[in-house]
Amino acid sequence: MALLNFKRKSDATQGADLEAILADYSIEVMPRTAEKIEDFTALLPKGTRVYIAHIEGTPIDDMVATARRLSEAGYPVMPHFPARIIKDADTLADWIARYQGEAGVDQALLLAGGVTTPHGDFDSSMQLLETGLFDKAGFKRLHVAGHPEGNKDIDPDGGMKAVNEAIMWKADFARERTDAEMAIATQFCFEAGPVIKWADDLKAAGMDLPIHIGVAGPAKLQTLIKFSIACGVGASLKVLQKRAMDVTKLLLPYEPTEFLSDLAVHKAANPDFNITNVHFFPLGGIKTNANWAKDNGGASGVPAANIG
């Protein structure tokens, strides 16, 4: 039983497994955090996919300028398209055209967005996909959101029924209605066992999209708890709360080593496991996250098979 064997490998073997799962990782920035980085090439290997989070109230000019800067520095850029803050199809087409024309963008993360009341015509990423505008523009890669612990905006009762139905719809869309490569990018999690079960259950149900698992980068424990509550991370929040009760660990920064090592060991034992990539949320800062990834063998932009 692979789930029960996380700790039976040697430290050296676990380190190699961790290095393998960190190959071709991605990371997320916002325009205001990106402004604080003088030189991204000093932190991230070229080829690192950089998501740009579009928070409500951020001008599209700032988003496009950040995308252009990163693209010119050698990074494939994946801006967020939050459905609920996009007024209508004309606005969506304008954003796509600006990203493409001014920053060479050909990939996007489509999500509902953290807004309760839509600002216009769109309520979900599925509606964005159905416009056909990304395919018309020739976008090569489209990612959609995944929620291993559910999403009460979608399933108010705390279950997984509507969330999983949406993922299956997106998998069908990927097979039948787009030429773009598609994948799931998830909310951040802290506990490997439930994540593995979630991914395996989706695969058993016929969901064949690759999964890029969301991971909280190194940060103060209090910071992670605050973001977890705000983002609706549920079950695995207990891992942080348990850690907070241990006085010896309370003041130490959280690092995702154990979580990712457990996933890495499982993937090494199950090569067809459908979690294929790691996506970092640098909640403790981009520099801190990038340095942690480097120190643990992360070779972003380099597929595992090409690491010598």
Automatic annotation (TrEMBL):
- Cross-referenced SUPFAM superfamilies, in alphabetical order? FAD-linked oxidoreductase (SSF51730)
What is the source species?
A: Thalassobacter stenotrophicus
Q: Does the keyword Oxidoreductase apply?
A: yes
- Tell me what this protein is called: 5,10-methylenetetrahydrofolate reductase
Q: What keywords does the record list, in alphabetical order?
A: Oxidoreductase
Which superkingdom?
A: Bacteria
The record's GO molecular-function terms, alphabetically, read: oxidoreductase activity
